[in-house]
């Protein structure tokens, strides 16, 4: 892959330097006429000796589940490419030598994306498409500023992992493997993330891994997400190791023979199951009465040192650990999605993956499910073309085109691909048409109620669908549209009189303007103002109308506030703010400093919890139900109501129904 990258780089450079007028070229040093090019080490004018490409394939057959070291990436590495040969159920992981997990550490699978580590940015890719055969990969440009280790979380046969990086310098560098282990050997089943040295982590964790939940060899592999199930017992000692300090008060020598140290019990076990630890508790007592006395009565140098003892070595109940759903296999219509479901058990403060039969007392969640992002729809032509809209000339014809879902329902056009939509309208030519003058009858009403006026009619030149007329057109001899009329002299006529419009009510935008409207009697040469009721039988002209002098420009508009996201303990509410012009279309001309707020806090008061007296825990170990994530089942939600309700109040969305 790196070689292909170098070839493409060289071709690009050669093409750029050759495309110069006059035969002169510009080299990578930006000098005209220079023939220098970038070598595979990224050096302008280099001779490919300033770096070394380190590559290989990790093909070791792995026998145990868990984390296995693949390759070490040295400090200063560039062009890093770690890729599975093909898709598998295994995962790649990345850790720094300082103990920090970068990708997929502590049995937690990260989402694909960009992760910073070792002084560079790694791109983590994990194709989820059903049809894809590509495996996972880590890609980074580098250079790294510390040593990094690549691991494989082994769950099925190793398909092979290709690794490649570039080191500047001429010294040969080979991939590094752990000093006490051949390549592919499991690194204690997990990544060490507590900052200890590698040897310390191997020695301690290797010892823990030999302990089975029942005292035998383990068939499980640890995770950094271990949790214990502590149970408090009354009158028990603290689970911490007792202090063995010299008392401050002086010890009377004459009394030391009458008192001695005696074990009076043990501390509380650190866990309720899965192997915990406890320490014996020693107290100063009288030799004869065995009554406890102050520690100053005993010789502090003779006090026994408490030694750790195992306790509650029986395993914790197994539970199903549910992973996230994968992407749907299809973008529309019914598809499939998958998730990982593992049987886990807590032992020695670690969460271990165990055989599925240990979870047989629980219903196993589904690992596959159907999914449908949206319905696949297609275009259907429902009718044939209609007849042309005109008997002659150019018209249009139409047909019915619908977007239909995969179950036959007509849906919105947006559900189908608009680029593939068949035409539902087209032009049609029915041949030439003749033209002629078309007239209406004269209007019966004269334009003046008294005196001289006119009557009108409509005249239009249009096509005549009767083909016997000549084809030369209407010509210039247009028939008259008006004729005179007279309804007699005007004397004592009553009518409304309207004055001129007044000034607009605003300087910009939409306003109103008014005018005076009065009732008058028209005589020969004068007008007489009458009461409005004298003209009530006539239609009164408008005394008010809208006006628009000039646009006001863009302004901020906003919606009402939404409901608060929380009823207490501080939530937020939102509203939409838009800049609109005078014609109510989106604009970018508003002053940003005057923009109203789109989000604000609300309901800061504290929540008052509602206490349900019927919501109680029926069993003493309901904390195990909570830690095993069983509150999603109705049975456990009822049997351990108080515990499940408490965790739901701390983690919204924790409870559901199964």
From TrEMBL:
<dbReference type="InterPro" id="IPR010909">
    <property type="entry name" value="PLAC"/>
</dbReference>
<keyword id="KW-0677">Repeat</keyword>
<dbReference type="InterPro" id="IPR010294">
    <property type="entry name" value="ADAMTS_spacer1"/>
</dbReference>
<feature type="region of interest" description="Disordered">
    <location>
        <begin position="174"/>
        <end position="260"/>
    </location>
</feature>
<protein>
    <recommendedName>
        <fullName>Thrombospondin type-1 domain-containing protein 4</fullName>
    </recommendedName>
</protein>
<keyword id="KW-0272">Extracellular matrix</keyword>
<dbReference type="GO" id="GO:0030198">
    <property type="term" value="P:extracellular matrix organization"/>
</dbReference>
<keyword id="KW-0964">Secreted</keyword>
<dbReference type="Pfam" id="PF19030">
    <property type="entry name" value="TSP1_ADAMTS"/>
</dbReference>
<feature type="signal peptide">
    <location>
        <begin position="1"/>
        <end position="19"/>
    </location>
</feature>
<comment type="function">
    <text>Promotes FBN1 matrix assembly. Attenuates TGFB signaling, possibly by accelerating the sequestration of large latent complexes of TGFB or active TGFB by FBN1 microfibril assembly, thereby negatively regulating the expression of TGFB regulatory targets, such as POSTN.</text>
</comment>
<feature type="compositionally biased region" description="Acidic residues">
    <location>
        <begin position="200"/>
        <end position="210"/>
    </location>
</feature>
<dbReference type="Pfam" id="PF08686">
    <property type="entry name" value="PLAC"/>
</dbReference>
<dbReference type="InterPro" id="IPR000884">
    <property type="entry name" value="TSP1_rpt"/>
</dbReference>
<dbReference type="GO" id="GO:0006508">
    <property type="term" value="P:proteolysis"/>
</dbReference>
<feature type="domain" description="PLAC">
    <location>
        <begin position="611"/>
        <end position="648"/>
    </location>
</feature>
<dbReference type="GO" id="GO:0004222">
    <property type="term" value="F:metalloendopeptidase activity"/>
</dbReference>
<keyword id="KW-0378">Hydrolase</keyword>
<dbReference type="InterPro" id="IPR036383">
    <property type="entry name" value="TSP1_rpt_sf"/>
</dbReference>
<dbReference type="GO" id="GO:0097435">
    <property type="term" value="P:supramolecular fiber organization"/>
</dbReference>
<keyword id="KW-0732">Signal</keyword>
<dbReference type="GO" id="GO:0001527">
    <property type="term" value="C:microfibril"/>
</dbReference>
<dbReference type="InterPro" id="IPR050439">
    <property type="entry name" value="ADAMTS_ADAMTS-like"/>
</dbReference>
<dbReference type="Pfam" id="PF05986">
    <property type="entry name" value="ADAMTS_spacer1"/>
</dbReference>
């Amino acid at each position: 892959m790196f070689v292909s990258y170098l070839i493409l780089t060289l071709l690009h450079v050669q093409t750029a330097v050759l495309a110069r007028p006059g035969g002169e070229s510009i080299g990578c040093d930006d000098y005209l006429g220079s023939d220098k090019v970038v070598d595979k080490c990224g050096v302008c004018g280099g001779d490919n000796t300033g770096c070394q490409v380190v590559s290989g394939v990790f093909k070791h057959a792995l026998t145990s589940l868990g984390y296995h070291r693949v390759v070490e990436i040295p400090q200063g590495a560039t062009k890093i490419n770690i890729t599975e040969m093909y898709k598998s159920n295994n995962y790649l992981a990345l850790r720094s030598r300082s103990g920090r997990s970068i990708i997929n550490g502590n049995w937690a699978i990260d989402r694909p994306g960009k992760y910073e580590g070792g002084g560079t940015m790694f791109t983590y890719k994990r194709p989820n498409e059903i049809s894809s055969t590509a495996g996972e990969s880590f890609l980074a440009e580098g250079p790294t500023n510390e040593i990094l280790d690549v691991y494989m979380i082994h769950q099925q046969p190793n398909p092979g992992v290709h690794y490649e990086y570039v080191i500047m310098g001429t010294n040969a560098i080979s991939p590094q493997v752990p000093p006490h282990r051949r390549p592919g050997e499991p690194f204690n089943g997990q990544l060490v993330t507590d900052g200890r040295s590698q040897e310390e982590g191997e020695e301690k964790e290797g010892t823990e891994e030999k302990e089975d939940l029942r005292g035998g060899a383990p068939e499980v592999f640890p995770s950094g997400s271990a949790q214990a199930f502590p149970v408090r017992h009354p009158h028990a000692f603290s689970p911490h190791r007792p202090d063995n300090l010299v008392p401050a008060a002086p010890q009377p020598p004459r009394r030391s023979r009458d008192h001695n140290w005696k074990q009076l019990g043990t501390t509380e076990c650190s866990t309720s199951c899965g192997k915990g630890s406890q320490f014996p508790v020693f107290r100063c007592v009288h030799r004869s009465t065995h009554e406890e006395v102050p520690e100053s009565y005993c010789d502090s140098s003779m006090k026994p040192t408490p030694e750790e003892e195992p306790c509650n070595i029986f395993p914790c109940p197994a539970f199903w650990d549910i992973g996230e759903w994968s992407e749907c296999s299809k973008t529309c219509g019914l598809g499939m999605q998958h998730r990982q479901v593992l049987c886990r058990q807590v032992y020695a403060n670690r969460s271990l993956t165990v055989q599925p039969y240990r979870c047989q007392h629980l219903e196993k969640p589904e690992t596959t499910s159907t999914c449908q992002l949206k319905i696949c729809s297609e275009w259907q032509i429902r009718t044939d073309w209609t007849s042309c809209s005109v008997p002659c000339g150019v018209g249009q014809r139409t047909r019915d085109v619908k977007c239909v879902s995969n179950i036959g329902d007509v849906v919105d056009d947006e559900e189908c691909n608009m680029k593939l939509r068949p035409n539902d309208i087209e032009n049609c030519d029915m041949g030439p048409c003749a033209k002629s003058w078309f007239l209406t009858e004269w209007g019966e009403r004269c334009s003046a109620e008294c005196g001289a006026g006119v009557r009108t009619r409509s005249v239009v030149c249009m096509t005549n669908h009767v083909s016997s007329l000549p084809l030369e057109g209407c010509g210039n001899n247009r028939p008259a549209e008006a004729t005179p009329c007279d309804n007699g002299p005007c004397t004592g006529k009553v009518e409304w009189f309207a004055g001129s419009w007044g000034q607009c009510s605003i300087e910009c935008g939409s306003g109103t303007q008014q005018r005076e409207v009065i009732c008058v009697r028209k005589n020969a040469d004068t007008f007489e103002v009458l009461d409005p009721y004298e003209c009530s039988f006539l239609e009164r002209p408008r005394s008010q109308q809208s006006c628009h002098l000039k646009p006001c420009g863009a302004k901020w508009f906003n919606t009402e506030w939404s409901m608060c996201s929380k009823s207490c303990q501080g939530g937020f509410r939102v509203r939409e703010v838009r800049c609109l012009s005078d014609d109510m279309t989106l604009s970018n001309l508003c002053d940003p400093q005057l923009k109203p707020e789109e989000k604000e806090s609300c309901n800061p008061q504290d929540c008052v919890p509602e206490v349900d007296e019927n919501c109680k825990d029926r069993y003493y170990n309901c904390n195990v139900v909570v830690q095993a994530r069983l509150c999603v089942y109705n049975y456990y939600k009822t049997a351990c109501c108080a515990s499940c309700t408490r965790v739901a109040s701390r983690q919204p969305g924790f409870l559901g129904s199964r």
